[in-house]
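Z., the sequence and structure:
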Amino acid sequence: MTGYGRGEVVVDGLRLAAEVRSVNHRFCELSARLPRTLGIYEHEARKIVQERSVRGKINLVVTWGEEGGDDGREPTGTLTLDERAADRYMELLQALQKKYKLSGSVDVDTFASLPNLFVWSEMRRDPEFYLGILREVVTAATEDMIRMKETEGAALRADLEARVEGIRERVARIRERAPQKVKETAERLQDRIRVLLNGNELPEERLAQEVAMMADRLDATEECVRLEAHCDHFKKLVSEEATPGRKLGFLLQEMNREINTIGSKSADVPIIEQVVDVKEELERIREQVQNIE
């Protein structure tokens, strides 16, 4: 099931924001991208999201940004000059000039471009401070995503229940038509037997036996009963289970098996029409169930 959530918290004039996006997937696959400052706590951020997600391809992005401004700035502290490195650079440059009798001087631009001359002295914080605000913002984003999924899930549940109820109605039509189909087939069988016998009489017991065997082969009552029971079970799972996705997938396989058996037992056009409609509806439901966790 698709979903999007966002959370943010402001600290020291900076805004920490988290975004969680989820799309349909058979398993729970999570990718995370955090700022360097918070990278060591990635496992904690993952844990928060995974505890609330069963299936889906999920992307978590956490960013620092200025309050009311653009993302990207981290609370990196103060930029300072590494004086020991600067002194050493100058000593080596002067020694190089003296040894090889070089002319000229080093200007500020050249000197400032030397590597590792300036360093950031990171802002010192208790690790629990960073972990606390990360948990807060990721939890807020995850809860926001869950609310969106629940809204979508309610609409999806109503659609599935309506489709399953439609299948029940078609199965009821099949059960209503089936006895008439058996009766018509039995009458045709009797007429054909009499034609083949060319006026000779077939014992009524033997004829009744043949008709009974034929009726048993055509009878789909058990399949209809099981299919209706599956419809009830389906609606129960949708309304009561928190994460019914896999169970619904297995149940749909059983429903397809029953309707295929009903179709194979009947050569009656009205029944076949209902069978085709049921199979088409089950395929639509199967596509929808792939969106359910």
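The longest strand covers residues 56-66. The two ends are 7 Å apart (CA to CA).

Let me know what you think.
H.
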